[in-house]
Design goal:
heterodimer; A: 377 residues; alpha/beta; Rossmann fold; 5-stranded parallel β-sheet; 18 helices; B: 93 residues; mainly beta; SH3 type barrels; 5 strands
Amino acid sequence: MKYLDEYRDGKLAARIVDEICRVQTKPWVIMEVCGGQTHSIVKHGLDHLLPQGIELVHGPGCPVCVTPLEMIDKAHAIARRPNVIFCSFGDMLRVPGSDGDLFTIKSQGGDVRIVYSPLDCLKIARANPDKQVVFFAIGFETTAPANAMLAHAAKQQGVKNVSILVSHVLVPPAIAAILSSPDNRVQAFLGPGHVCAVMGYSEYEPLSRQFRVPIVITGFEPLDLLQGILMALQQLESGRAEVENQYSRVLGRDGNRPAQDLVLSVFEVGDRNWRGIGTIPASGYHLRAEYAEHDAEHLFDVGQIATRESEICISGEILKGNKKPHDCPAFGKQCDPQHPLGATMVSAEGACAAYYTYGRHLEQADKLTSINFAGAA
Amino acid sequence: MCLAIPGKVTELYEQAGMRMAKVQFGGITREACLEYVPETQVGQYVLVHVGFAISTVDEKEARRTYELLEEMDQLTELNAPVVDEIGSRREKP
């Protein structure tokens, strides 16, 4: 309860929690998809406020986490080249590849730069015409309009020395993959608010119908999350399965059409490999053929990259909602944010990193398990 | 990293054919591309993700969200270097 007292809307939060307790009659498993939501839930201890029968599991919506090791190694191989200026969002720099991270490459003389916006790469390219500027374009649908604009503007403005290493993933195919898994436990989803600010939420409606699963598009403030949980619970308890929008003050059903149009003119949907999960069909974006001259995967032949993931790490099972960080023997021991073994520890938005940051590795694993799983068996 | 940060549009201009703005986030002002919310006017609030406004929000929502992001220590992307400072020529609005 200590987190609730600290929260400025504590009284309203307590009222929503009371209503959740009143409505809940059976055990349910609810997954929040977005890494920002996971971070907020763990930071504010929201999962500890819920009645015992409601278990929150943490989904695959952390783009840094699910970027495959092979892609990170590819990025590093490009960043090590002497004629390259390698640009990235800040949170990719600490992610270890098979041999060090981007900070290591920078310290060894590589020209690695953190950018605020993908458009910064155009300015860097113009100022360095003798270099190839490569941008590591990772992200979900929220980031796709920004990354697509870099390719579009580079082509339109004739800035030849900019290319993009694309590792873009999409939320709805990941939800479908989780629900299609024979060992799936997830019964309702909190959908990702800012992804839907771009994409709208109509594409979640067929998923909800096909799998008979409630999906509540939810913001990331504690009150948003508690309200999203309540809305999902009300659907579960009454046998409804539909898409609802908790975050209507920010987004509508259609999302941002100009952004969607540009994204689809630059990218096409194709298969993507998700770290910890594996290949999910039609689950990501690739640059269209018209943009081949700005596609770093075409421009740089880095040869075959062989990677080996940790054999202990259970991040794939965590990302699918089947396991929790405490179920992993390495959590908080061999594996921590400074020495991550797998997907869910490499970024602050990963479930394991969030649990670690807020001290949960110090708590008794069996006590937490009894809180989270009681009644669900 | 999918979090978008709300800020107030203080200046509009064009850069290399693109609609751009100065956006104020608390005490920090940064550049944002407005191509995806082209109707936005000075004084309005926008949600900005990696330098791109993706939607407009009202002032109350903007303030709430900004305070929460600050509380959650989720504003680090605003501290990424300004490209002008690392050797590129400045394109004046």
